[in-house]
Amino acid sequence: MARESSDKVVWFLAGAAIGAAVALLYAPASGEETRAKLRERALEGKESLTERGRELMDRGRDLYDKGRSLADEAADMFERGKKLVEG
Question: What is the residue range of 26's domain?
C-alpha cells in the first residue's frame, strides 16, 4: 500500500516536470529565459525527488527496525516456550 502511494507520487512528480518543461518550451519567452526556467525546474525536480528518496529510505529503515524487533521478540518467546515444554 505504501509502495503504491510512493510510486504514484514519483510518477506524478515526473509528469508534472515533463508538463512544465513542455509548457515552457511553448511559452512566448526568449531561448535564454526558457533555458534558465528549464534549469530551475529541473533543479527543483531533482531536489524534490532527492527529498522523497530520503523519506522512503528513512521509512524503509524504520520498517526494517520494527521487523527486526518483532523477530527478536518472537525468537525470545519461542525459547521461553521451548524451556517450559522441556521442563
Answer: 2-86
